[in-house]
Design brief:
CATH class of one domain: Alpha Beta
Shape: globular
CATH architecture of one domain: 3-Layer(aba) Sandwich
CATH superfamily of one domain: Zn-dependent exopeptidases
Largest sheet: 6 strands, mixed
Number of strands: 8
Strand order of the largest sheet: 4-1-5-8-6-7
Order of helices and strands: HEEEHEHEEHEHEHHH
Helix content: 40-55%
CATH topology of one domain: Aminopeptidase
Strand content: 5-15%
């Protein structure tokens, strides 16, 4: 019997020892796993959320954006005018039951929201915030109203948001229309392009500086008309009408505008060239798109049958230069 009791005690000691090792192992594994998972989770949060500061803070990963918020300064705010193309009786391009004017307004409102969130040193103005366009009588009055808003608001920058169309559904991508002498806006739209690519809007990007558009050509401030994508291209249309994609691209555009203006407080004001220099420039200026054609009116409505904006005949970015 004493031997049996000793054997039982020995077995009990071994069992307790093994159980103790198991508890310690589980504790160490759980602690290390939790810390590792938490660190990974925090990395995602940091790269996805706005961060504070007074200068741009780009991520080391070229495929991502660090969204940055800024502190209010004592300087006069910079006014940015956002123009949602078309509206009211003017639906713009048409794809099935989708109207361009609705796409433009949805994305432009999101850009305005993010600009106000990111940068209190930017005053945001909009040509329209609803589908109503009571000023619209004809093409001329519509364009004049939008140009007048640039002066009324005292804007230094204006961005007119549109969606393109083309007879060939394989054509896709983004078009930035700028004035040939506006180097500031050319730099800024290049930043927008980088941000768009970073959030997955990869495709053809074209900066055109020899297209005659009233909203850009006749502007006295830094201006661009952005054709975000082609409603006639299935992939582009899906992104343009998807609320999550709209939010993603609006946030990327707003961040590019906010960062650029904050980091370039001494950017020169746009000086509209004289008629003589404009004529000379238009004769020698080369667009980055060899197929770009002059256009007259960025707000002219388009029929569903043609599915093309007559004001911005879309160049084929996939065609090889001759």
């Amino acid at each position: 019997m004493p031997k049996l009791s000793g054997s039982r005690n020995k077995n009990l000691s071994i069992a307790l020892y093994i159980a103790g090792l198991a508890v310690v192992s589980l504790f160490l594994y759980g602690t290390l796993f939790t810390r590792t998972y938490k660190a990974a989770e925090e990395d995602v949060i940091i790269s996805d959320q706005p961060s504070g500061g007074d200068s741009q803070n780009s991520s080391d990963d070229p495929g991502s954006i660090t969204y940055k918020t800024y502190s209010k300064s004592d300087k006069e705010p910079v006014t940015v005018l956002l123009d949602a193309g078309h509206g009211g009786l003017d639906g713009g391009n048409v794809a099935g039951d989708v109207l361009e004017k609705d796409i433009n307004l949805a994305i432009t409102k999101k850009i305005a929201q993010y600009l106000e969130e990111f940068n209190p040193n930017i005053k945001v103005e909009m040509t329209r915030t609803t589908d109503d366009a009571p000023w619209f009588q004809d093409e001329e009055t519509d364009l004049n109203y939008r140009l007048d808003k640039q002066k009324e608001t005292g804007a230094e920058y204006t961005f007119s948001i549109h969606a393109n169309a083309y007879e060939d559904p394989s054509v896709e991508g983004t078009l930035f229309i700028v004035n040939p002498t506006d180097s500031t806006m050319k730099d800024l739209v290049s930043k927008i392009e980088e941000n768009m690519e970073a959030v997955g809007w990869d495709g053809n990007y074209t900066i055109v500086d020899n297209m005659i558009l009233q909203l850009v050509t006749m502007s006295d401030i830094h201006s661009t008309l952005i054709e975000l994508g082609y409603m006639t291209n299935p992939t582009d249309l899906e992104r343009l009408t998807n609320p999550e994609e709209q939010d993603k691209i609006a946030k990327a555009i707003a961040a590019a505008i906010s960062d650029y203006i904050e980091n370039n407080p001494d950017a020169p004001k746009y000086e509209k060239p004289s008629e003589e220099s404009s004529a000379s420039s238009s004769g020698s200026s080369q667009s980055t798109d060899p197929n770009a054609q002059p256009a007259q009116d960025p707000n002219a409505p388009a029929s569903e049958s043609s599915a093309a904006d007559p004001n911005t005949p879309a160049p084929d970015p996939n065609a090889a230069a001759s």
